[in-house]
Amino acid sequence: MTLEEKINHLRTTSMEEARAESNAIIDSYRDALEKVFEDHKIEAKRQMQTRIKAETVNARQQKNQAMARAQLDLKRRQGRIQQELKDKIFEEAYALVNDYMKTAEYDDFLLRCIHNAIVFANGEEMTIYLNPSDEEKRSSLEDATGIHLTISAEDFTGGIRAVIRSRNILIDHSFKTALRNEYDKFLFSGGDSIV
């Protein structure tokens, strides 16, 4: 082998070794980069799933809050409308009571209430009050019952009130009290079964 051939052989061998070493380094670097890329993809996917879960929970919470606000607004509106209807119903009830107070049945009602109070008092001293609007009925009621009646300073919308002071008893057959009690107890019943 000549020197020239030896140099060529050495050059070829060196180049092949250098190429093989270079290819090994490149392959190793490529494998490392691919592993880093795969790890990055896995981490990005995990972060994306975590974010999706967090956003889903957040969206669900916002939806629930919006629904709760809407239900609260609806209940407030319903309560306001029910209050308006309740007030209107009792305005009509007061009008009906005022109409009733102009009838003969009302006079009979007053007589029954006075008689019941007399029976309840069982001879004890008692003051029976009439509503100021019933002042014109006073003398006829006194004649019919034989008891002195007092006109109240307070308007109690018809009926009578009687006081037995010795026993601290108030007999209240006034329409004002009856209507107020009914107003306080009045509730709208309803729900899905109402047609």
UniProtKB/TrEMBL annotation:
<keyword id="KW-0813">Transport</keyword>
<dbReference type="GO" id="GO:0046961">
    <property type="term" value="F:proton-transporting ATPase activity, rotational mechanism"/>
</dbReference>
<dbReference type="InterPro" id="IPR038495">
    <property type="entry name" value="ATPase_E_C"/>
</dbReference>
<protein>
    <recommendedName>
        <fullName>V-type proton ATPase subunit E</fullName>
    </recommendedName>
</protein>
<dbReference type="GO" id="GO:0033178">
    <property type="term" value="C:proton-transporting two-sector ATPase complex, catalytic domain"/>
</dbReference>
<comment type="similarity">
    <text>Belongs to the V-ATPase E subunit family.</text>
</comment>
<dbReference type="InterPro" id="IPR002842">
    <property type="entry name" value="ATPase_V1_Esu"/>
</dbReference>
<keyword id="KW-0406">Ion transport</keyword>
<dbReference type="Pfam" id="PF01991">
    <property type="entry name" value="vATP-synt_E"/>
</dbReference>
